Amino acid sequence: MESPLTGRHFLSITDFTAEEIELVLETARRVKRHPSDYTESMRRRVLAMIFQKPSLRTRVSFETGMAQMGGHAIYLAPSDISLGTREIPEDVAKVLSRMADVIMARVFGHHLVEELAEYATVPVINGLSDYEHPCQILADLQTIIERKGQLDGLRACYIGDGNNVAHSLMVGAARMGMHMTVITPPGYAPKAEVTEKAQQIGQASGARITATTDLEATEGADVLYTDVWASMGQEDEAKARKRIFQAYRIDAETMERADDDAVILHCLPAHYGDEIDYTTSRLPNSAIFDQAENRLHAQKALLLHLLGET
Predict the structure, then answer these.
(1) What share of the chain has pLDDT > 90, as a percent?
(2) Which of 59, 85, 203, 299 has the least CB density, counted as fewest CB within 10 Å?
(3) Which sequence spans correspond to the domains of the chain?
């Protein structure tokens, strides 16, 4: 039976309903348990991967996923296309749509994935933009379920910069009924429009979504999540951010406030000693490498649904 997601774009976690997210997560669990069942699912299928930003996990997970399912992925480096300068997104989308079955783009500006989706006649996946990181959140939700057995009613805290990951986490949590508190230094909160959207979605699912500067909000948390203080493109701010964000980290003190079984998550790469210390990252509570692996399984599931191969 064809998936309800077939032919759709995935630019934001809000593009899918709670039921559709669960559909992808269930497929991800199945793919992870029985990978040999999907070795021919992407036969003769091609994924075009556009990169403005480098990445270990995004490239390897998508490329490996296509290879393991019998398909092929083409890596297009920043200098291959120079998206938005050498070629406009409209032309790139129209050309790739005639040669590939699906497009993944990891870009600086979110408007670029929106433009690609506007003109593409094949599904477009947001592999990361400055506004959201929806593929990461699919893997995060899968990891939390593996560790906690559920999402509904859990209390999660994100500590650090109110960035693209924080945006997608807030909305993803709201969709799935998981309470989410984003804790940032003053002036670094997530965009107000995203917080408001997540809170509106949370009203339907019962999820409480809040943004605060108070580190005490980690008290009793079931999930602790952090990310780098300065993302790619913010290198000139790194020194100042290191001073401002010093207390906004996951360490032994944070773990004492959280639940004893709190799951530790980080989307990597990590700057050990900044947003998380190395010792804490290696505790039994830490699922950061399960989380990284689940990028592979969640994205295989996403590809299967978007291309109608479930």
Answers:
(1) 94
(2) 85
(3) 13-133+295-306, 136-291
